[in-house]
Design goal:
This protein folds into 2 domains: about 100 residues, Rossmann fold; about 120 residues, Rossmann fold. The protein contains 10 helices and 8 strands. A 4-stranded parallel β-sheet has the order 2-1-3-4, sandwiched between helices. A 4-stranded parallel β-sheet has the order 6-5-7-8, sandwiched between helices. Helix 9 links the parallel strand 7 and strand 8. Helix 8 packs parallel to helix 9. The relative contact order is 0.18.
Length: about 230
Amino acid sequence: MGDVGILMLDNNIPRPLGDVGNAQTFDFPVAYRVVPGADTALVVERAADGLLGGARAVARQLVDAGARAITTCCGFLAIVQRELADDTAVPVATSSLLQVPLVLQTLRRDQRLCVLTVNAATLTEAHFHAVGVTAAHLDRVVVAGLEHTDHFFPAIMEKIDHLDPARAEAEVVAAARGVVESDTAIGAFVFECTNLPPYAGAVRAATGRPVWDATSLIGWLHAGVSA
């Protein structure tokens, strides 16, 4: 059984190395279990409406099987952070957005951070507030979305059935470059999407800014519960 249990969406998208859904991404054991009915559009576009009960049940199953902590494969599940944490016997970290307040503390007060997300149009203040990101924090947050990309977004949202990592990387890097070119006060990135970590190194190299993502969150989570 994995040290960290990961709630998976009910989808079938490619999972290259670095993706949270690829067990080879981690140097410690993880366990996956699908939340039935958790299709990508429901979670990303409709705030995971109606999925809390299923997510709770799957989290309990993972804990009963030995997981010492629980996370998820989609940053939009931030919306159920408080409910899952209250209902689960081990630490729960639903979303990389939990890192936003900490990353802001590491930056100068005249700097901002960019949250790069699969869909800026549906990432709401409710998602942020659910993981402790306050209105004061949001004054220093720029949200940039990838919903207009020609390849990455369709691949993640299951509109096409393949992913070209090189093409996806180019789109992600272009988006990140655009953000820092339009706002030089951006001091760091936090990637919302758990499918973005494969491209974190390329974004760091292209922008000169540090990047935190779902794998950094899960590594931190594991460090606190590992034997």
